[in-house]
Amino acid sequence: MALLAVTLAAALWTWAPVTFTALDHAAYDFWLTHRAPRPVSSSLVIMARDPASDELFGVEALDRALLARLITAIDEAGAAVIGLDHRLDHASPAQSGGAASDALFIETIKNQPALVLTQSTADQPLLSEAVQLGHLRISTDADHVVRAVPAEENGLAAVPPFGLALYRLARRSGAPPATPDTVLVDYAGDGSLQALSPLPLSSVWAAVEAHDGERLTEWFKDKIVVIVPQPPVAMPALLPAGQAAAPLTVHLHLLNMLLTDSRVCSLGMVSRALISFAFTGLIAWTLLLARGPLGWFIAMAGLLAYGSLALGVLAAAHLVLPLAVPLSAALVVMLGTALWNQLTSHERVRLMEQDMLRLQQEAAAVREALVLRETRADTLQEDLQAARAAAAQSAEEQDELMKTADALRRQLTDVQAQEEEARGRLTELERQLQSLRAAVIEPARLNDIELDRLQDECRQLGIVTQDTGLLRLYRDMKKGARAPLTVLLLGEPGTGKELFARAVHRLSPRSGKTFIAVNMAAVSPELFESELFGHTKGSFTGATADRRGYFELANHGTIFLDEIGDLRLDHQSKLLRVLQEKSFYRVGATVPTTVDVRIVAATNRDLQRGVSEGWFREDLYFRLSGLVFRLPPLRERTGDIPVLVERFLADIAAEMGRPAPKLSNDAMQFLEAQEWKGNVRELRQCLEQAVALNETLLLGKEALRLTGDRLTAGDRPKASPLLPEPAGDAAVLDCLRQHEFDMQATAKALGWDRSTVTQRLKGLCFQALVECNGDHAKAALAIAGDASHLRTVELKLMDYYGHLVSVIDPFKSADEAIAECRRRFKNLPDRHFASVDALVRRHLAK
């Protein structure tokens, strides 16, 4: 009977999508039309094209540089999440900004922590991992009406709908909750884009051009902002109101529905089928279990209960359950059951008689089996008694066997003792051999996905570690870097405080701005104010021109104040004033200078003790300790020594032009047992000395020369760079090409400061421009040497030349412009000023 019920329901299901599903849709449309109008969420701002913006920018696609500027302005206005429907599958034409516009746009979206793009950009390798994606698919029913969107788009990874992705990111929710196969859209108004009250693009652009931050903040502060750069393209589908449907508009109404908490969900075909089959089977099972009027009463009550349940779920949980298919299938099963009971009543009686006869036959067979088992039990009892008698007769033979076994056990004990002695000797020999082998250094995997990811991120920032404590410190520092709080780094010398300070800068929203590092202990007390705050021309003897201080140079960026604990008390009060008021006076100036600077300070001294002893101001300490991170010394993370040794040996060998050596196991264990009071700096000096004084490719314990008379970190001689200061331009350019024009990596390989490498590359770019008669493309290719580096060099060359032009534009005389260039580019090598002279005269002659 159950099989019959399922068969009838399956037959009904084959034609139900055409008839009964349409009835369900009609019922849902009736509810959608007559329910109270849905409001537009105040947390949603849609910025769309209007006739004024078409006149301003034309009807073609918007310039990507313009989009980048809009995204930056919206982000600075405090938007919670930004959504954008824009394709990156083509390069911008020259009239729309070209490659420079593309580069600016890609760099902008990389720096956005809360950005959702459409799935059309999922195959673009330039997108940041922080950028999320959403699909724009819509679902149409048999009547070509769009009532739902698919919940997930399966590709290389699950991609949510565009509106749902924006909603999740705004609510900062992680893994999405369980959702049905599709999500019904509760439209606001008539379902058009205008029903969501979009903000005209021309009005926003006017506010951006006028730098009207107050108005932009009023529009976008803590809101979800969706940029619609082109009018949505309609598809051959309809909205419930009757007009053509555009996928982007449907997803925006989905987002508005989620924000106003008016979600209505519909089950997928599989779920509807399972509910229909389950309900039909329950009705069939009820009719079979409770025959007669009681079964029919329970079945009818079940139909009423399911209808009430469907209405209650729609009203309370906004979930549409199927009505027509389950109820119709249940009625068919009820009628079929009645007909079947009428036709098969006589057959059931005959089957009952057959069952009784079968049970009697089975009982007779069981009795025969019981008799056979009783006979077999008696036979087994006799066999057991015979076996006991045989065991008693063999007792004497057993004693003889026991004696023989004892002798064999003694022999076995002797052989095992000899085996253990041989094993011990073999273990000792293997240990001695292992100590002479090269230590195998492999980066440890931490069996934690998050820590492994943090380890890879640290390696990209130049931080070599596999210590879980330091990785968790980096995770906290990464979170704090996004906030504008002051960061205080505590740790012994050589623990990498400046490296972590640069990491804070690169992980912060100021990563594209200037990073200035200042050693407070090296600043002369007499020049403290001039160095940090700058001076005006004539403010003191030798002040021949205005000079910007470190704080002004780091405006909108980050300034790293190293050795802050060595600052004098009178200087501490001046620094405190800058931290409190964010303004200062240049030496000799009467007008204050206001700056926006992120402060990162570091010290190896105990500032709390300094506060209690009086050599450090308490108010300055509280200003600096917004976020405090203590960098552990190397002796507390000895697990990092192997990976640091591998990294240092490779770098030192490259500097000395030798193959990279290896350490033996006993040498590695000896290194791990040291205190390393100079931390990482002392470890590197030890390895530099070992590589310099030994030419073998396997360094043993003796090659390390670690004795009681070891040098301290301050007494240790500094490593000589790979290339001396007057190194030829060709050698520097070759090193830049080897490191793919990564200035930090090149500076590290040469043993120079990064600014020195930058000045050398700038001079080479000016020289190439002169030799190529001002042709930027040829000059960039001459510097790059390889097409794979061409784009990087083009951007750097355009920046250097643009800076030069901005310096000389105010001057009409070439001599005055060249004199200004010598003052502004004072760190440029003298041999490159001939190229600067030629470029200046050529530009002013135009």
Automatic annotation (TrEMBL):
Transmembrane segments: 269-289, 296-317, 323-343
Gene3D superfamilies documented for this protein: 1.10.8.60, P-loop containing nucleotide triphosphate hydrolases
Domain of life (superkingdom): Bacteria
Annotated GO MF terms: ATP binding
GO BP term (any one): regulation of DNA-templated transcription
SUPFAM superfamilies registered for this protein in UniProt: P-loop containing nucleoside triphosphate hydrolases
InterPro entries: AAA+_ATPase (IPR003593), AAA_lid_NorR (IPR058031), CHASE2 (IPR007890), P-loop_NTPase (IPR027417), Sigma_54_int (IPR002078)
Keywords: ATP-binding, Coiled coil, Membrane, Nucleotide-binding, Receptor, Transmembrane, Transmembrane helix
Coiled coil: 349-439
Domain named Sigma-54 factor interaction: residues: 463-692
Pfam families, alphabetized: AAA_lid_14, CHASE2, Sigma54_activat
Segment forming the signal sequence: none
Protein name: Putative transmembrane signal transduction receptor and sigma-54 dependent response regulator
Organism field: Nitrospira moscoviensis
